[in-house]
Amino acid sequence: MLATTLDIYLVGVGGQGILTIAELITKAAEAKGISANFFPTKGMAQRGGFVKAQLKLGHNEVGPDIRPGGADLIIAMELSESLKALRFLKQDGDCIIYGYNWQPTEVMLGKAPYPTVEQVKEEVTKAGGHVTYLPPENMPEGVADNIYLLAAAVKHTCLGKFFTAEEIQEAIISRWPQGAERNMASFEAGMGAL
Description:
six-stranded mixed beta sheet, alpha/beta, 38% helix, 194 residues, single chain, 8 helices, 6 strands
């Protein structure tokens, strides 16, 4: 039986397009007649500041933010930022991580460690989740990384049980009709990731 609701917690750093991913999923939900509550937290608009979004699909009422242990899916566009979202992941939830590294000042100054990919995967497993990791070095040149990650999420996580690739592609094309060719190439690359 398909789920009727889907709660998604998205994290990254400014400039990566995390809010755009949430907007595209919201657009796809609205096109299907699914209610969507989108809670963005822009924080630092400049590159490098923490950005998060919470998206609740299929709920009949406008509700509060996703509570700890309430997210079916975490979408993370930065390796270390994914750790900030783990407390929100449901048992058996999905976590997809694009392994981009944006080291904070403390790390650059040698005052704090930066997590390894294996450490992050281990933390997702400890939280009871399933992890899909996308190495940035595998992404083709010229591809929009947020569209690439969104496509991989459709293919490899519970997002694909809620939307078809075509439904997400329609949302992308309606958002950027003049950039459709590049965005569809990015989407196809993400569908072929892993």
